[in-house]
Amino acid sequence: MSSTPSRVHPAWLPPEALAPLTSGTAAVVGDGPCLDTARRELAGARPAPAREADVVVATGDACADDLGLAELPAPPPRGAVTVRTGGRLVVVGHDGAAALRGLYAAARTAARARLAGRSTPDGVSIDAPEQPRRMLDHWDNMEVHPVMGQVERGYAGGSLFFEAGRVRDDLARVHEYARLLASIGIDAVAVNNVNVHEREAHLLTDDLADVARLADVFRAYGMVTYLSVSFGSPRLLGHLATNDPLDEDVRAWWRQATDRVYATIPDFGGYVVKADSEGQPGPFAYGRTHADGANLLAEALRPHGGTVVWRAFVYDHRQDWRDRSTDRARAAHDHFAPLDGRFAENVVLQVKHGPMDFQVREPVSPVIAAMPRTRVAVELQVTQEYTGQQRHVAYLAPAWREYLGFRLDGEHTVAQLAAGETSPDRPQPAGGLAAVSNVGTDAFWTGHPLAQANLYAFGRLAWDSSLTAEEILDEWVALTFAGADDAALTRIAAALHAMMDDSLARYEAYTAPLGIGFMVTPGVHYGPSVEGYEYSPWGTYHFADRDGIGVDRTVATGTGYTGQYPSPWRETYESLETCPDELLLFFHHVPYTHVLHSGSTVVQHVYDSRADAVEQLDDVEGAWASLADLVGTAVPEAYDARVRERLAEQRRSAVEWRDQLRTYFHRASGIPDATGRAIY
Ligand code: GCU
């Protein structure tokens, strides 16, 4: 099923995107896999000595004189110095990976300048990533799962890495993919699903030579490779009697297994672990804590410099819906906050951005600020599980920016807490940013071609969270359509801004309202099913009755979740007066007639925004249609066909959401829509 299509869209790195760097002479100074990659990227240029070449790529050990420069500032850790002078461009990376990333950054700068109609001035720029770890997690399975397909929550075909139960022989597309990731600054990838099924558990032992082939590809683009491993490996793979993290044989098994990994892949990144979560084995079975569990693997990885990425997504997925006292939103904080300070130094605790599960609107997870002595990484979901599954246009950068800029402890932003850039009195160690990838064997990589922008935006925001969503979209457009002439490029950018800038807000407006979340078809999580999860064990309820809707998570009368926030948020969310409208139903159970800060009632808001959002799709479709004369030139025919197919499905699905939600709320409340628009 996952055969490689013969012609693949180049995403944001078509040959034209690098053309500004290869039109003259070039030199690459130094050795190593990333510099070799830089050499290949510049192969179209004429070779010249580094002192005079138009484009030079080097690492920090090169001296200014050899590069034809009067002086050269030292490149920062993980970053690069770029010198533009007299028509020359010199990129000097801290190491080979940083130099390669700097080369791609120069292509990006050129593309953006072109779109803006200006030239890049001479000068020195010093650029380093805000997040020290920028990781992509792939939920890829080796085998095709009967329900999930090959990539769990994947909406873009099969796995790029695996085919027919093993690592692909032909890794040409993995090279292309790694190149895309390097260009947005990613430095780590986990290649297999966090739900580790039996076959994939063996990657850790039996398939190491094949994993090494993947690691070779990623290394050439400046990335280290991680594996998701099963906490149950000692029993499953080693046939031990237990997985108890304090058992001596278990500890020895992990040490030996890890030694073998590093004997095969010396720069291996480490392990990603989903334990005691949604059926995955974990330390709870042995009466041990998650610190015991994580430290077991940390001990095995430490001698090799490896890292354990331990996920905080731990909750009871077999809850009784009758039980109103258990609150899934509380679970990660309840389990993990008490363990602060008990994790080994090479453990990173990876926390989903919200307390539930990647809903279109959630408050920021309080866990991110609750563990100042722990390396906390924030996990985002690029794959659009709950945001339209790469059939709807939903540009996620505006939401990610909001999360990353949120001052969770009243002082530091989420980006700062993850980056470990906190004040001297709160020296939180760095965890970084991670995200679940959205790619597959699809010819456009991401199903919806415009979903490429989400992958692009994740890397860029991990690099610099002060970039605006609009700036990032400009970059992506300018690189993706680098082959278009100036006039066409300007029109494409305008059309895509019209389609994408507010696309997530629009998606939110026709789906579940005011932070309530879910209301999706169970299992597949696509399309509306208002009561789909209401009587299920998953802990995702809305409690709608004839009078009102919402989850009371207050300290005063509810589950107490608001109490997990530091001030001022605990007070802000606790009070109906100050709780923001968009999160109202996440924190409070209110009557349908409750008046929002916007002045509308809850029920009228549901009626209006669902209907308005669907009406806006006329403009979205119109914006794309306005490019019709460019199809076949600046916009490939197949690209246009795919976008139009997706827009039609988006409309069909959005209408279904609108009609089901408006009708449900009308039937539940008995309150008519003041605008008189159709209800069924
Ligand atoms: C979601 C998703 C699962 C996934 C889980 C996770 O619940 O639906 O498919 O396994 O997140 O993050 O582990």
TrEMBL record:
Domain of life per record? Bacteria
Q: Which residues form a coiled coil?
A: none
Domain Glycosyl hydrolase family 67 C-terminal, by residue range, is: 446-677
What are the GO BP annotations of this UniProt entry? Answer: xylan catabolic process
Q: List, in alphabetical order, the Gene Ontology terms for molecular function in this entry.
A: alpha-glucuronidase activity; xylan alpha-1,2-glucuronosidase activity
Supply the InterPro entries for this chain.
A-glucoronidase_C_sf (IPR037054), GH (IPR017853), Glyco_hydro_67_C (IPR011099), Glyco_hydro_67_cat (IPR011100)
Give the transmembrane region(s).
none
What range(s) does the Glycosyl hydrolase family 67 catalytic domain occupy?
A: 126-445
Write down the Pfam families for this protein, in alphabetical order.
Answer: Glyco_hydro_67C, Glyco_hydro_67M
Cellular component GO terms, alphabetical: extracellular region
Designated name of the protein? Alpha-glucuronidase
**Species annotation:** Salana multivorans
Per the UniProt record, the lineage of the source organism begins with: Bacteria, Bacillati, Actinomycetota, Actinomycetes, Micrococcales
